[in-house]
Amino acid sequence: MAKIKRNDEVIVITGRDKGKRGKVQRVLEDGRVFVSGINMVKRHTRANPQAGTAGGILEKEASLHISNVALVNPATGKADRVGRKLLADGTKVRVYRSSGEVIDG
Length: 105
Prior knowledge:
The chain is an all-beta fold. The chain contains no helices and ten strands. It has a domain at 9-76: SH3 type barrels.
């Protein structure tokens, strides 16, 4: 079970965009995440009339390493670490380390 999943609200804890918040759009298998509006880079693209794409300078999100983001605890509004817990019925759930509150499930 992944500690950070798609559609989780995260906060960047280090780097150029430190302190910014956003939703996780995609999680890659190599431990990188794409967060909406965070780590924006400029991509110079050539026009391709056959594909119907215009050229120019496009701005898009680049991936961040998963260790550079932390889940936002809605109760406190701050970054929180994530743990795992096995419930009595045998299901695994994610929990906030500070409060022990169940995240999903």
